[in-house]
Amino acid sequence: MLDLRPNCECCDRDLPPDSREAMICTFECTFCADCVTTVLGGTCPNCGGDFARRPVRPAVLLAKYPPSTKRVLKAEGCGPAEAA
After folding, report:
1. Residue 78: which pLDDT band, with cuts at 50, 70 and 90?
2. In what order do the strands lie in the sheet with 22-24?
3. Full-model pTM
4. Per the structure, how many domains does the chain have?
5. Residue 66 included in any domain
6. What is the CATH number of the domain that holds 24?
7. Does residue 3 form part of some domain?
8. Per the domain annotation, does 80 fall within a domain?
9. Residue 18: how many CB atoms within 10 A of its CB?
10. DSSP letter string, 49-83
């Protein structure tokens, strides 16, 4: 099940389950579209992969399959990805 994380790991912007601004990599690292474009250059700083828009879970299924409440934030800051 996709882990719908509640925030951007870079700027800590809230990304609710229905956000069209949430972007994920294949490991579900979650960033806002602004950080992906302007800070990260389209490359995940954690794994070096690319991003896709996070799918929106239908509202009727959120009670049965709730989004994560655990916020993840890069303690060392957020910058362009280095070669993995």
Report:
1. confident
2. 30-32, 22-24, 52-53
3. 0.88
4. 1
5. no
6. 3.30.40
7. yes
8. no
9. 13
10. ---EEPPPPPGGGTTTSPPP------TT---PPPP
